[in-house]
Amino acid sequence: MxxxxxxxxxxxxxxxxxxxxxxVNDLAALLAQKGDHAEAEPLFRRVxxxxxxxLGKEHLNTLASVxxxxxxxx
Length: 74
Known about the structure:
It is built from four helices and no strands. The protein is mainly α. Helix 1 packs antiparallel against helix 2, helix 2 runs antiparallel to helix 3 and helix 3 packs antiparallel against helix 4 (about 60-74). The longest helix has 19 residues, at about 35-55. The protein is flat. The chain starts with a helix and ends with a helix.
């Protein structure tokens, strides 16, 4: 279902839209929870890169993305 939501959001919104990023993050979190870190990490990196560029490095959502990536890599 997370993949489906992401596909719809990527098709109907910009790939950098906050809703789309939320879907990317949800999918990455599920994959990480299931232990599929190899697939989750690039998704977390995608969200982090966009948030750093659009929100800044000190924005709370950006910092949450840093945290998500760090947790995925441990």
